[in-house]
Structure formats: C-alpha cells, structure tokens
Amino acid sequence: MKNILEYLENAAEMFPEKIAFADEFSTITYRELLLKAQMIGSVLIRKSIGRSPVAVLLGKTPESLAALMGVVYSGCFYTVLDAEMPAARMNAILKDLAPAAVLTDQSHEAQLKQTNFNGPVLFMEDLFSEQPDREALSRVRAKSIDTDPVYVLFTSGSTGVPKGVVVCHRSVIAYTEWVGKTFHLNENTVFGNQTPFYFSMSVLDLFSTLRNAATLYIIPKKLFVFPAKLIDFLRERNVNTLYWVPSALAIVSNWKLFDYTPAPFLQTVLFAGEVMPAKVLNYWAAHLPETLFANLYGPTEVTDICAYYVVNRVFDDAESIPIGNACDNCDVLVVTPDGREAKPGEEGELLVRGSFLAMGYYNNPEKTAESFVQNPLNPYFPEPVYKTGDIVKRNSLGELLYVTRKDFQIKHMGYRIELGEIEACVYASGEIESCAAIYDADADQIILFYQSGTVDSPAISEALRNRLPKYMLPSRLIRLDHMLYNQSGKIDRNRLKLKYESEYKAAVPHKKGAEHN
C-alpha cells in the first residue's frame, strides 16, 4: 500500500451506504464521500496543479473531509485553514505556503477576501456538476509514490511564525496501521471527534475511520462550553471511541457528568496533546472500569504519536502518567546534552526515528535542518531523527516519563525547576479544574494561573508549601473564572502571559494568595 486513498476505496467497496462522517446537521456515506472526492480531484487535475499545496478554508463538516480527499486525488496535498484564525495568521500561512489554489465555499468567501491571497479560488458549490474523470485519476495514481505529501499542517513556531509540517503517505499509513492494530479498531468503531482538522490529533480520527470503515461523529463545539448534553450526544450516536485532549476530558470530570449520566458504552478513551492530570484520569477510570485508557504522546513532526502507555494501574492524584514506550515501527531515543544515551532515571531529550517522521518544514530548510538531524548515536550511515525538545526519563518499570519542555525548564533562585511539577502538585491539592505555571524571567517570578470553583489561593498555597520546597513556590497566584485555551483545546500559556503580564508584574514579588476574578 502506498496511497492513503486506498483506505477510502476499500471502505466504499465494502460498506458503500454506511455513514462515514457526520455532524449534528448532515451525514456523508462512503459512496458519497468517494464520489465527491473524485469529482473534486478531477477538477483540480484539469487545473494542472499536481504536486502542489492546496489550502482548504471550510467549516468543520462531513463535506470538508471530501474536500481533503479530493485534493489528494488530484496528486496535490492539502493544508486546512482554521476558519476562526486571525487574518494576520492566515496571511502568514498563505504567504509561506503559496498554494496553487484555495478550496472554499460561499460562506467563507468574505473571510478569504480579507487576506492577501490572489490566486485561483474554487468554490465547493461549483465542483459537483460533472462526473469524475476516471482516466485522469488513474494517470495521477500511477505516478504516485508513498513519499508524496498528503498534507502540510501548520504549528506555532517559537518565534511566533507558523511552521508547516510536511507529512507523506508512508508516514500516515505507518501511523494509521499502528493505531488500528494496537487498539483493535474495526467497522464497529464509532469515533466522537473533538479535535479540529488542522490539529495533528485529527489524523488518528480521520484516517483510522477510513482504514477501518468506521464512523466518525463531529461533536458540536458548543457541547464543550455547555456540556450538560455532551454524554447524551455520544450515547445517541453509539460513540464508543474517543481521542481527546486532556482539557476536554477534564470538562467531564469538572462537571462530574458521569455522576448523573453514566457512559458504559465507551470502550476506548485515548488522550494526547498535553499532560493528563491523574485526578482527571482517576475520575474517568472510576466511572468506566471496563474501558481501555491510553496516554498517547507525540508532536506533529512525527505524524501525531511516537509513544504510548495503556493504563494498567491506579495512580495517586499527584503522580505523572507515563508516556510509555515507542509505537510499533517507530523508535525513541533519550539523549543527554553531551550526546550519549541516557541511563535509567537520567533525564535527556527525546529523539524519534522511523517511518512516522515528517519530511520536514515546508519552505523552511533552516528550521528543518535544526530539528531533523543525524542520529547522534549512529555515526555510520545517514539516519534522520527528530528532536522533540521534550525532556523525559525512564522509571523503574522502563516506561518513559514526560518531565518538561526544554523551554519549560527554568532557573529560579539558583535551582533548576520543572514547571510541570508545580502544576502536578496543584492538581493534587484540591478541586482544581485547570492550571498553568509560567515563568517571568525579567521579574524572576513563577506565576500560577488556576481555575477552581471551590478552592481559593490560600488553600492552594498551603497545599503547595506541604509538597514543594520554598524555591519552587509560585510568587503569584491568579484565579481565573475561565482558563484560556487555544483552538486545539490546549491551555494557551502565551495568551495568559500577555493578558495578565501588567497585573503580575505590578504585584509585590513573593506575595502569596492574591486573586483575580
């Protein structure tokens, strides 16, 4: 197998009338998905833009997935544009990508006109008037190879400039095969999708659905804001498999939804994207004792995931959930700053090698050369590895433990501190809904943001004093009515820092217990 479209074609042959993707308003069967994707692909082929990027600006709907597959049918590769992103960021992505065309619909036309893009624009409403050109589609497929790109996914760069990660068919196939075999996915699997299609976690949802002829339901975003009917939505659609960020899972535990609405129909719950608080996992596990839970770890540059841990024991609320061991057909290395393999219990940067690796960054050879490097443990032949920037170590069971980001390690009062350790202690201190610790280097202050309905700052300060040395105690605690999240559902630390910078810099250093409501 060398092309991800084989997943779609096989599913359409076996289950043509089965629902492939659906939201609260519409559905698309495998037969319809295949036909619409081939129609779109045929139109793009006539534009003679093969092996070029095509940007897709659409809502999160079943038909938008036909657009993505249509781009791939044409021999091109897609980039999903977030319809809610600021115009400045969209302009930055379009400038870097220089797409051969933008695929959109009339409801997003005004938004596209606010950008600087002046190339061809194709509207979904105009693409379904002719039947697919089978001969042209066959010609394109005959020339395809497994290292052709499928998509370019833009992530936030450390300088504020988005970076486009190029991922090819081989990587998506290798990853999707691992997912399906490891978690026993099949045609009876029903996904409840939470993550946006421009976020790497959606790769699992989308391509696992196609590989296994499964069904995916797009969960309305409003249910994560007002979640009273969230479990009802899952039950009514027979959803049995979730792959969510921990912040989304925490909504269920914070609202204690399972206390009122059980969900025994959930068979598999996977999570990734940020650190999972043990307290959140414990709530889910206590209410779903027969459900398989797994912590998945990986950056966009390894397609989505490179290591995983299937939960097989109970954790204290203050413990860290392991990220486990490498996925099949993937390998991870823990390398110390001096370039040697870390010993058990010794911290080092996590490097990844294998078929899951992306090809690099689009139109950015300098960043590619910085992050995709020669394996430092192999001087004998060319072997690229990706430097994740994450610091990890192995525990006594040989499992990988995430420690921190390189840029989350700070020096404060002469000590090296992991901000993640502070956050773990906060979650264990009471009914905390979410929290984030940041460091202001100019003021040499640790700032803790937290959201809690029942616990106040003095109580958290007291709990932290009982768990942490003095040099790790936050200088300032800021209580929020609502935590700030980015479009992927992760806590947005940069926005927190910018929004409240004037407030915490004006505070007296080391003053404990101040709150903001």
Describe the structure.
By secondary structure, the chain is α/β, with parallel strands linked by helices. 30% of the residues lie in helices and 25% in strands. It is built from 15 helices and 26 strands. α11 links the parallel β12 and β13 (292-297). The N and C termini lie far apart (55 Å). The model is unreliable at 508-517 (pLDDT under 50).
Q: Would you identify the regions where 5 or more consecutive residues have pLDDT less than 50? A: 508-517
Q: Based on CA inertia axes, which overall geometry fits?
A: globular
- Secondary structure: number of strands: 26
Percent of residues in helices: 25-40%
Strand coverage percent = 15-25%
Strand order of the largest sheet: 2-1-10-9-11-12-13-14-15
- Total helix count? 15
- Which CATH architecture of the domain at 5-157 and 187-238 and 253-266 and 287-292 would you pick? 3-Layer(aba) Sandwich
The CATH superfamily label of the domain at 5-157 and 187-238 and 253-266 and 287-292 reads ANL, N-terminal domain
Radius of gyration: 23 Å
Looking at the structure, the CATH topology of the domain at 5-157 and 187-238 and 253-266 and 287-292 is Rossmann fold
Instruction: Round the mean pLDDT to the nearest integer and report it.
Output: 92
The first-to-last residue Cα distance is 55 Å
Q: What characterizes the major β-sheet?
A: 9 strands, mixed
Can you identify the CATH class of the domain at 5-157 and 187-238 and 253-266 and 287-292? Alpha Beta
* Alpha-beta content class: alpha/beta
